[in-house]
Every structure is written in structure tokens, then in C-alpha cells.
Amino acid sequence: MDDKKLYTFYTDSIIEYPFFEKVKAKYSASKYKYKVFNQVADKGICPRCNKKSAFYMSTRDGDSYRVVCANDECSFPNGKSGMLLHEIIMEYMDDDTIKEWRDARYTKRSFYGWYGIKPENRGKNKT
User: Fold this and answer.
1) What's this model's pTM, rounded to 2 decimal places?
2) What whole-number distance in Å separates Cα of residue 4 and Cα of residue 63?
3) How far is CA 78 from the centre of its chain?
4) Cβ(44)–Cβ(52) under 8 Å?
5) Which residues contact 119 (CB under 8 A, 6 or more apart)?
6) Coil, strand, or helix at residue 63?
7) 5, 32, 81, 114: which one has the fewest Cβ atoms less than 10 Å from its Cβ?
8) Rounded to an integer, what distance in angstroms lies between the CA atom of residue 89 and that of residue 97?
9) Adjacency order of strands within the sheet including 54-58
10) Beta-bridge mates of residue 65
């Protein structure tokens, strides 16, 4: 049986926020006094070029988080100047964090959408 069918994917910014804080702590991000892309951002070390030129902020929709590097020479593995939180965790974080990330976003389903067997609540036998 395929294990992927047993898990349902679900994520939102509330689930992702503790991981975003962990990434910011790892790369020494602190509050930036100006807005970046009209959003409040934190400035810290870039995971790729190791210079203090990365901005940690939420996405335009507000449903996830991203890291954007202001260094022109920096290019993330996806070929862009920024990465989403999921990509940062998968590329630059340790195995324990990756496992926590997966566990937080996937929930186990019952086989074929069934519920577990519940105990029967029968009345006492009158005989």
C-alpha cells in the first residue's frame, strides 16, 4: 500500500511560523527599520552567500514566508534571488528540523477514509 495516500498535506502561516523563527535565529536575523516590498522584514545572514544581505519576510499572500537576498551576485539553488521557507528548510536546515517540518504539515489518515472501530454502547441485556 502506498504511504503517500495515508497522509493529508495541510499548511498555513500558523504552522510555519515556529520554523520561520528557527530559520531566523540560525541566520541571526533582527528587525529591519525600513520596509522591504512594502512589508515589515528582518535582516540577517544569507544562507547562500553568508553575507548580511538577506531579508526574512512573509509572502505577498501572507500564507507562507520567504527569504530574499539583496546581493546581486547571490543566486539560490532555484536560480532566483529568493526562496520560500519550504525550500530553505529542505536545502539548509538539519535532518531533525526537516523531519519536524514534514510531521507538522502532514496528518495521518485512516485507511480508505474510514474511521477506527468504536466500542458499541449497548444497554444491559434484559433476560
Assistant:
1) 0.76
2) 24
3) 17
4) yes
5) none
6) coil
7) 114
8) 7
9) 30-31, 42-44, 54-58, 65-69, 82-84
10) 58
Q: What's at 84, amino acid-wise? A: L
What are the grid coordinates assigned to 107, written together? 496528518
Q: Which residue has the cell 499548511?
A: 11
The predicted pLDDT at position 37 comes to 87
The cell for 111 is: 485507511
Confidence of residue 1 (pLDDT cuts 50, 70, 90): very low
d(Cα 43, Cα 28) in Å, to the nearest integer? 8
Alpha carbons 89 and 93: distance in angstroms, whole number: 5
Residue extents of the structural domains in the chain: 3-109
Burial class (CB in 10 A: 0-12, 13-18, 19+), 49: middle
CA distance 27 to 51: 10
Task: Convert the pLDDT of each residue in 88-108 to its tens digit.
Answer: 999 999 999 999 998 888 877
Are 87 and 69 within 8 A, CB to CB?
Answer: no
Q: Is 107 exposed, middle or buried (0-12, 13-18, 19+ CB in 10 A)?
A: exposed
Q: Which amino acid is at 77?
A: P
